[in-house]
C-alpha cells in the first residue's frame, strides 16, 4: 500500500525494515496507519511528537524458554512471549495464546491491536499480549499444569496487578489460568488480581466467560439498528469456531432471535438447518474437549463437512468469524456477499483478510472490525480488575449490563469518528481513530522518555 502521507510512509517503511517477515504484525500496522491518515493530516502534532514512530514499537518484548517434563519423563522445550506494547493509559492488558502457530509476529500483531481495543472500552488499560507455541490439545491435565507452572515461573518476573495483567485467549481457558494463578501466588506470596478470566471461587468475574461472544452480538445488534434499522430477529447466522467466543456468540445471537446454523473447528464445519443445539456443543467442547464433528453423531439431520473455510459458502444474513486470524479471505467475502449477507462482525482477532474487508465495505455490508466488536472480553476483564481491587463481586446482571453499555458506546464512538473524519459508516477507520486519539493524547501529556 502506498501512503499518501509522507510521515506515515516513512514510519511504515521503518516498521517493515525492522520486522522482516513478520507478516501478521505488518498487516495490522498497515491497516491502522492507513486509517490514521486523516488524523495526522489534520493535526501535525502527532508527527512533531513522534507519536506514530513510538506507537508501532513495543515498550518491551520478552521472549523466554519454557521447559517442562511430559508424562513419559521426556524434557520438552517451548518458547514463551510477552509483549508489553503500550502503557500510556493503564497497565498492560491482553491475553495469553497457547497454540503451535504462536511466534513473535503473531504476539506483536495481537499486542498492537490490543492498544486500540482497550482504549475503545473506555477503561484504563494499556495494550499487551503473550503466549507460547505450546499446544494444550492432546496433553494430559498434568502436562498442561507443568507447562503452565514453568511458563509462569518466568512470566511472574514481568507482570503484576498494577503492571501487566494477562488473561485467556486461544488455548488458554479456565484450567490454564487456574494453574498459572496458583503458581504466581506461590512464587510471590500475594493474592492479587494479576490475571483475569479466573475461576469464580478465587476472584473471577461473573459473565467473563460469556463476555466476548455476548459483546460481539450486542455490538452487532446496535450496528444493525443504527445503520440499517435491522436486528438479529429472524436472521440466519453463521459463526466460525466452536471455542469460547463462538459458543457464547451462538447463545446470545439465538436469544436475540437469530438462527445460528453453522459452527466449525480447524478440521471442518457442521451445518444444522434447524439451528445449532448449543447444549450439545457445550457438552462436546467444554466438557469432553472433543471435536465439532461429533455434533452430527448426536443431532439428527446435521451435516459435517471437512475443511473449515467451506463454512462461508452457507447462505446467511449475518456472519460472525470467531475462530482465528485470516480465516475469511476475499473469495469467501465474495461468496457471502453473493448470498446476501448484510452484516459481518469479527469475534476473532483479524479474521478477515484486507481483501475481504475491502469487498465488504465496497458492497455496503455493515462491518464490525475486531478491535471494536470483540472488545467485550477485555472490557469485562477490566471489570474483573475493578472487582478484585474493591475485593467485591458484582452480580451477573450488573456485569452484563455494564458490558452492554460498553459495547453500545464502542459502536457510537467508532461510528462518530468515522463521520467526523469523512468515512461515514466505515467502522474500520472509525474504531482505529477513536482508539488512537485517547492513547496518543496520553502519550503527548507524558512526554518522551530519554
Ligand atoms: P478457543 O481456543 O476457545 O477456540 C478457538 C476456536 O477456533 C476453536 O474452535 C478452534 O478449533 C478454532 N480454530 C483455531 N484455529 C483455527 C483455524 N486455523 N481454522 C479454523 N478454526 C480454527 O479460543 P477463543 O474462542 O477464546 O478465541 C477465538 C478468537 O477470538 C481468537 O482470535 C481470539 O484471539 C479472539 N478473542 C478471544 C477473546 C476471549 O475472551 N476468549 C477476547 C477477544 C478476542 P480447534 O479446536 O480445531 O483448534
For the biggest β-sheet, the strand order reads: 9-8-7-6-10-11-12
Query: What's the average pLDDT?
Result: 97
Q: What is the rounded Rg?
A: 21 Å
In total, the number of strands is 12
Shape: globular
Number of helices: 17
Biggest sheet architecture: 7 strands, mixed
Order of helices and strands: HHHHEEEHEHEHHEHEEHHEEHEHEHHHH
Helix content percent band? 40-55%
Describe the structure.
The mean pLDDT is 97. The relative contact order is 0.13. It is globular and about 65 Å long. A seven-stranded mixed β-sheet has the order 9-8-7-6-10-11-12, with helices on both faces. A five-stranded mixed β-sheet has the order 1-2-4-3-5. Strand 6, helix 9 and strand 7 form a beta-alpha-beta unit. It is built from 17 helices and twelve strands. It is an alpha/beta fold and 450 residues long. Helix 6 packs across helix 7, helix 8 crosses helix 16 and helix 15 packs across helix 16. NADPH dihydro-nicotinamide-adenine-dinucleotide phosphate binds next to helix 9.
